[in-house]
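Collaboration report, partner site 2.

Our partner group contributed sequences for two proteins of shared interest, and the home lab folded both. The records are reproduced in the order in which they were received, starting with the first partner submission.
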Amino acid sequence: MNGGLLVAGTTSDAGKSVVTAGICRWLVRQGVKVAPFKAQNMSLNSFVTREGAEIGRAQAMQAQACRVEPTALMNPVLLKPGGERSSQVVLLGKPVGEMSARGYHGGRQRQLLGTVLDCLAELRGTYDAVICEGAGSPAEINLRRTDIVNMGIARGAGLPVLVVGDIDRGGVFASFFGTVALLSPQDQALVAGFLVNKFRGDVSLLEPGLEMLQGLTGRRTYGVLPFRHGLGIDEEDGLRVSLRGTVRESVVAPPVGAEVLRVAVCAVPLMSNFTDVDALAAEPGVVVRFVDRPEELADADLVIVPGTRGTVRALQWLRERGLADALARRAADGRPVLGVCGGFQLLGEHIEDEVESRAGHVDGLGLLPVRVRFAPEKTLTRPVGEALGERVEGYEIHHGIAEVTGGEAFLDGCRVGRTWGTHWHGSLESDGFRRAFLREVAAAAGRRFVPAPDTSFAALREEQLDRLGDLIEHHADTDALWRLIESGAPQGLPFIPPGAPA
């Protein structure tokens, strides 16, 4: 095999990332050397590769599905929102500046098409197959002229396109038809067909609609994936993470006689790398909630202030909502608080920021003896160390440089009593360290909580990726999918003028 595929979607959150990862894991289990690719990603959840490049966490997860090491080639353009209308542009793993949405779409984006096509070509020269993920919808006709992530990359590289639709939202047939009908003849020629995602019920009841869709579009459906709980992967996000009433909790009950441990995560503005708490949620008996009111901290055994793309803005938000005072009371009472990256910085004494917010001197919460100065250069590293007697791995993504002036050493940060702070993302994925940390939290909370001795976060992630591969293997027409990846879109697919069915 020597081919490729673009997985597009009728909407954002249609399931492109999940389907891409599933196809990657299915292919690698067939002995195919495969890599993921997303030309342009907008996300505050990012990762650091071994060579010190910043890419979207979704692409790092997809690389894991492929059983390969992630590289900057897999996500050459990363946009990190910093406000309503601007983002930091990360090119080939390194930040190159802030840009407004109008400035980016007005010209800069189109200039990057050659770069992303070169990255894709390099991957295709190394791997048997490259499975590309689109963004949003390929039918965003207002953005088509400068598009480099959907039909722009498909046209430039001659990739067949599979359109994913979330049937759980409703209107999937109209979305499939409308997506194709809005495209130009040249773009339509690459759209091979559809994949239905999140179906509940009897597939036989759906089949007449799929036949009618093929009659209307001349394009087949490559599979119907059933709705499955617990398939969440490292999410992408736009400007913010909606609370959505989100409760991430483990599906395994705690050991007999043990108590549940409650973790509250402050849902600060521009929250980044909130996936840090997934390893906690994977522990039996740990319940993780995202909160935005001080009363929601009352019954929490641990409060986490996560990373953020806007440290000063998050600090103001905490004060406005009364959460800052609630955190100060917790620290004074010796109740556990953990700050990660931006959350660590705002727990300190003061911040000097002429880079991110340009607010200058800002007083922090004063819970840790730390002074932070924002530097123009971004720190991007994959540190390894030890804490609580256990080996720890993590990754750092930050402009803020922390000067620790007291307390007890904790990774790259410090701790005072039961308040901890570190820049290290991903540290809780280190199983031994996570268990040691939770034992300290439980002791401070007076809980009879005992971490499960055999919980392996890496193994759970592998199981999750295999479940995605199973979805494709068991519910997609894999023979047809293989031919599509290897040979490209079928020849002679009909053009659908807008409004044709009427």
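Second partner submission, folded after the first:
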Amino acid sequence: MNQCCTIGDHGVNVEFICLNQSCRDLRVFCFKCLQNEKHNLHMKDVHKLRDYGKLFENNNQSNVFEDLERNIDYVNTLFKWLKDEMFNSNSLNQEEIEYLNIEQLHDYICSFIQMQSQKQSILGIIQKNVENLIQTLNNCISDLEFSAMGNPGKKIKSELSNINYDLINESEEQQINSIAFNLDSRIMIAGYESSTIKVFDFIDGEVKLNQEIKLHKKSIYCVYHMKKTKEFISGSCDKTIIIFQQGDDQQWNLKQQLEEHQGGVNCLVVNKDEDTIISGSDDTLIKIWTKDNDYWTCHQTIIGHQHYISCISLNETENQIISCSKHPQILIHQQEINSKVWVLLQTINVSTWGRRLCFINDAIFTFQPERKEQLHVYEFNSKNNQFQLTKTIPVEIGTCRIKKRGCFWFFPQQFIKEKQILVNKNECSVNLILVNQDGQFITKQSIDYFTSGVFGRMTDDGQFLITWDDISRKLQIRQLKQ
């Protein structure tokens, strides 16, 4: 920390800290302060500022918690033993009772009644002590929370990790279903319900229309801008995928049209090398398209879903695909190394179907069940080579002004690796969730649009969130403020 001592005529950087509980002097000070006999009555509590972190490495708080955890484990063991005794001891089954004579049965019933009374007494004593323990813990937590209200360390940590996207610009637009950006986020592609595609310049949160394209016959459901080439692709309700290329005149023209789907194309994923397109459709099929000599062909058709495909995600290594549909299942496919064929690796049955999922990394993906206020987190278990549900994260659902509406498609989950932010639209709310180094999911901001008809995307650098909703009927641009 290269900061000068607050005593003006000292003019040197602070070097020391004081941890004495009774000290009333400034706790961060320089060598000249020390020479002036500040803190001389408790020098044992004066430490070098650079050693601050080491002072707490070997504190006995961790030992106390270890002792408490051992005691809790022992209490759990005793409780299990007590439970087994109460349920299993001195109990006879129906067959054994039928072999008793009257006197034996009388004695057994008396013993049983007495045992029940003892059990109630024991449970009452335990319950009272448990309530005392709960009250003690609540009091301790309240004391800590009260003490932390003015804790600058907690405040600083909160400020450092604060995430907030503020509205900086908006403009009237017809319904936009999908948005995509090029590598540096200076070109924005928007796919419209009207079947139009518009290409915008996107500079510092301002949009300027460059070109309107009307080649699709029906609504645009998904768009993706290539990162390595001046090309973008679009999927439409008209069952086609079109690859567009920018010419020397800066205008975008049709390069190739893919027509093998038998239903609307709902989602598109492209690999990093941009030689593979993965598409999901209303026809319940996933198609793998590969490029050879700059020409795209269908390499493989994946079956298995029982309803129209709602979302696809490709993992970081790009050897696994997760997909969901309007059916309570998540399918995981893996590419075989030699044949390059994708095969079913795992089927996860879920209680509620969902429209959105996303890989966070190779070992973790998230899934948003329809109309639920929890985000599901799945993690890979190396022992059985399966993904398993490990946690549920509370997420906002928002307030819908139009009743009995579904969540709507076309706003896929998006993980911004640079900022470690997961963008998760759920009903009427867009939840911005920070994934920290400990694997915790912390909702930092929830934007309520008061309608489930909201569509959008975040720029790949995490600086801007762009949405369109059917209440404001505006293209809204929000910028990250930290």
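Feedback sent to the partner group on the second submission included the following. The two ends are 22 Å apart (CA to CA). Residues 90-160 form one domain.
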